[in-house]
Amino acid sequence: MYDGDSWMWHGGGSGWWILMAVLTVVFWAVVITVVVLAIRYVATDRGRSAAPTSAPAEDLLAERYARGEVDDDEYRRRLALLREHR
């Protein structure tokens, strides 16, 4: 039998394989965590930029309605037109 690597199996370096196994698991856990967080970050940013929170034209129309420049019927008609053409 080949006796050159007997130090790995008897005595001297018997605990290193446990340390290497733990470090390998930790390494892959960190890599997977970084990938998942990066995907979540990119998906969240795209979701925010794709869906505006308010329409500027609707806000302006609401302000005009609040000041009394537009009556109820005209406000509803214009709001329906704005929402129809989104």
What's the β-strand tally?
A: 0
Residue windows where pLDDT falls under 50 for at least 5 positions: none
Report mean pLDDT, rounded to a whole number: 82
Distance between the termini: 79 Å
Helix fraction, binned, reads over 70%
The SSE string, one letter per element, is HHHH
Number of helices: 4
Give the overall form.
Answer: rod-shaped
Query: Which class best fits the helix and strand makeup?
Result: mainly alpha
Biggest sheet, open or closed, and with what strands and sense?
Answer: none
Please state roughly what percent of the residues sit in beta strands, choosing from under 5%, 5-15%, 15-25%, 25-35%, 35-45% or over 45%.
under 5%
Can you walk through the features of this model?
The chain is built from four helices and no strands. It has helices at 6-9, 16-50, 56-67, 72-84. Helix 3 (56-67) runs antiparallel to helix 4. The chain starts with 5 loop residues before the first helix and ends with a helix. The mean pLDDT is 82.
Q: What is the topological layout?
A:
Layout: H1 6-9, H2 16-50, H3 56-67, H4 72-84
Brief account:
The protein is an all-alpha fold. It is 74% helix and 0% strand.
List the main descriptive attributes of the protein structure presented here:
86 residues; mainly alpha; 4 helices; 74% helix; rod-shaped
